[in-house]
Write a structure and sequence with these properties.
Layout: H1 3-23, H2 28-35, H3 39-46, H4 54-64, H5 68-73, E1 90-93, E2 98-104, E3 112-119, E4 124-127, E5 135-143, E6 145-150, E7 153-158, E8 162-167, E9 171-175, E10 181-188
Antiparallel strand pairs: 1-2, 2-3, 3-10, 4-9, 5-8, 5-10, 6-7, 6-9
Length: 190
């Protein structure tokens, strides 16, 4: 993905984050209290001065009651029934080494979505809460190895393994392979 494309996504994402805050009637201070993210970081993300991390977006999604895919789909055009590979939105968290491709973006008429995730060797992402309590997830490792911790239980997944779960609390995704990991995440809203 080109730098210009990433900047355009960050700009649209920042604008949408500002809209959501306004729609909910929150000041920056109120949103900071609800999300645990500093006012300055929220302000910089809304102005697209920084590219939000996966962890930051997860915290905001929890406040707004939507999945990360829903949020990211809101900054894209209405999804078509067929999503060509070249049209699948890609988002990167450069700080953590996480690349997220929305293979089958959320749609108002559907409860499920498919996401391809890639983590570089040593990447470690912790989410302090699910964006929506009880979110159903199926994680299928395509290449490499992934350690997923959910409800205080760590699961080591190798290529071909699939973890099925409902997410109620904190989760952690760690790349357990020296070559990185590529996995498919199926998400079904409750």
């Amino acid at each position: 993905m080109r730098s210009d494309d990433i900047d355009a996504v960050d700009t649209r994402l920042g604008a949408r984050l500002a809209e959501l805050r306004t729609e909910h009637g929150y000041s920056l201070g109120e949103l900071a209290d609800r999300s645990g993210v500093s006012r300055s970081t929220l302000s910089r993300a809304e102005r697209a001065e920084i590219s939000p991390t996966a962890s930051l977006l997860n915290r905001l999604c929890a406040v707004y009651g939507r999945t990360m895919s829903q949020l990211l789909s809101e900054i894209e055009a209405e999804p078509a029934p067929v999503v060509r590979a070249a049209d699948q939105p890609v988002w990167q968290d450069q700080a953590s080494g996480f690349v997220r491709r929305s293979v089958s973006p959320p749609h108002a008429a559907l409860r499920g979505e498919l996401v391809e995730g890639r983590l570089t060797a040593g990447a470690d992402i912790a989410y302090d809460r699910p964006p929506v309590a009880g979110l159903e997830q199926h994680i299928w490792v395509l290449e490499g190895a992934l350690d997923v911790t959910a409800q205080d239980t760590e699961h080591h997944l190798g290529a071909g393994d699939c973890l099925r779960m409902r997410v109620w609390g904190p989760t952690r995704f760690r790349c357990a392979a020296p070559e990185g990991v590529r996995y498919l995440l199926a998400v079904v809203r409750p």
